[in-house]
Amino acid sequence: MKVHHAEPVNNGQRQCTRRRPEITHINGVALTGNAQDIAVDNGTVVIAADGAMTFEPAADFNGEINFGYQVKDADGDVDSANVKVTVNAVNDAVDAVNDEVTVAEDGSITLNLTGNDSAPDGGLEITHINGVALTGNAQDIAVDNGTVVIAADGAMTFEPAADFNGEINFGYQVKDADGDVDSANVKVTVNAVNDAVDAVNDEVTVAEDGSITLNLTGNDSAPDGGLEITHINGVALTGNAQDIAVDNGTVVIAADGAMTFEPAADFNGEINFGYQVKDADGDVDSANVKVTVNAVNDAVDAVNDEVTVAEDGSITLNLTGNDSAPDGGLEITHINGVALTGNAQDIAVDNGTVVIAADGAMTFEPAADFNGEINFGYQVKDADGDVDSANVKVTVNAVNDAVDAVNDEVTVAEDGSITLNLTGNDSAPDGGLEITHINGVALTAMPKTSRWTMAPWSSRRMAR
């Protein structure tokens, strides 16, 4: 608004011209005679160097403004008056301005999205974030790689997704009291941090004498990537096929890195071993593996035995020496179908005897002068009552048995005779017993028999 000073009008007639008074003050501020800005409520009176005056209301203000001014004349008389300015409203556009914030990975940051926005007509409010309408209540709004968390009081926080770092962009919309809307973008820079690798304890269960595939890193995490196992039970992994011994078992690593755990044969119970991981940054962490090996009922196994003994000799038997009872309690219950009593005991088998002492020691004795093969069975049981049977093969090696001629005595009447059986009390374990000489005379032409009839030499005969 410009303030104009009207000059006197001369209509061709002589007039008496009265000097116009001059303004000395506006809003209490003395004019300097130079260019000058004088502030009034909600506006400014701008005075140019030539004295021209302009009024400018404050930005986006509408309504009534009042300020005073003072004039004086050539005589020094002064007077004051008031200026009333009516500023008519116009529809001002709302202006949403892009925002940029920075937050640390896995951190959070408070958002003040309207802090640099403007709504000259008032009533500035956010209506949408990332296309989602605000409800006026507590609300979580998902954006790429993060979440805008709105509290019940309207306070906003941004939380990047776990372990994310990089740039995130999302939009928002505002409106003003007139319903004018505008949109802007939020750029969030998430700065990376060195995330620790985290190895978590594992527990697996496997049956006795079984095996189980291991996925030790399945519950571990390496936010910075590059998660790998470097050691198991303190042994460095080579990257090739590898067997790593642990207490009562083995971790078997295939060429492709697949891992299997195998408990020791017939072991049941708990096994523990450790492992170490690292990530792309070289951070390391360790955890424990607990393996529960469940017992199974293992069969007792009786294995055939073979022993060799000399004819008329004896041999100690250890029938269970090659047998097995993984569940323990291995004992012999029967030999040749005869139950053991737990005391000293002789058990007959074909052509021999198993002799059991009071302390359980066993000896085999073949029958006198027998040689050849002897077979007999036995049965065992374990702590669970499982039973199994096996055979014992005894080879009795022949020995050269001495022939034994035993003195004979007979009685005969004078001039009588008597039949002789000279070998009747003799023995030849190897067989073929025969008389070869009598009184030093070899028997050559006569049948070789053990029965003879003899008369006194006076009769000069010997008859069969």
UniProtKB/TrEMBL annotation:
It comes from Vibrio navarrensis. This is Tandem-95 repeat protein. It holds the Pfam family Big_9. InterPro entries: Cadherin_5. It comes from the Bacteria. Residues 36-88 form the Cadherin-like domain.
